[in-house]
């Protein structure tokens, strides 16, 4: 299930600056166009952009809209309010570590406040062995934990974390350098573009180090379950040098396939939000009835939808990446299925607006029978690599 996360401000101490995940995207006129937060009090600019009260100060000081340069005076601003009752009418979900919590909470904002007091999802690091441990299993882990079990992995984990912090520090320095160059001269385009490309490369390195850190964490968990035989997993190597990739999974594919009828000809699954080469996007899979040569067959297709992300200011727009979806086989790479696509068109490739999702590009498809015949479904789940070139 997809969700859209926003930062709230002005809705009480508990929710002040808290990230809240909504089941549907908020209308653009409820989100500050500048900082992306949902404010309880905001103003309409003459150009139809929205500004929270904090960003309004900067707009009034500059006397123009930061997006299109429209002249702005304080008298032209139209104040409006988003009250708590409005948010109460919109469904929210509990998200921990970029996925829904195990209790699958979905309800009103006021109910979320009560749920968060009881929710124990998420990981903590054991003070003895430094392994990531689910909070709900922390007490049991401490009773059985032995510090010497993971000396090697803990040291590796520490080095990876240090690398992640170093990369993010370099990113901040480059951002500062880029801003100075912009302020000095408008003719330094080549220099600024070079810095932007460096930042995109650092975004990839940041992602790879984060994946390495997660790999170490998975090794910790596997160590806790060493008595169990290893389960086969999909092959996830890059197809060729220079290709960036991430992996998503679509669960419950058998139920989605079996839900298709003459009246319901399509079922869509969400594979979560990912960041690749600096671009943030949601991943989706559609299983649908396709008419070919007079007969109906079940087909499967995939798409990504660009959405706002923390690297949007440093990547190229419109997005022109070639996208490849690889349905991965759990053991044999020869049985992988590759589907290519491009992010094209104004609604698909433009820089996403705060709180909004771009259109997806649904292109190549594969028949369901081919996926099932090749044995690509693992425990009711499709593992799909998304590659950028």
UniProtKB/TrEMBL annotation:
Residues 217-238 are annotated as: Disordered. InterPro entries: TRAF-like, TRAF1-6_MATH_dom, Znf_RING, Znf_RING/FYVE/PHD. Signal peptide: none annotated. Residues 32-68 form the RING-type domain. The keyword Ubl conjugation does not apply. The keyword Ribosomal protein does not apply. Keywords: Metal-binding, Receptor, Zinc, Zinc-finger. GO terms for molecular function: zinc ion binding. It holds the Pfam family TRAF-mep_MATH. This is Putative tumor necrosis factor receptor ovary overexpressed. The lineage of its organism: Eukaryota, Metazoa, Ecdysozoa, Arthropoda, Chelicerata.
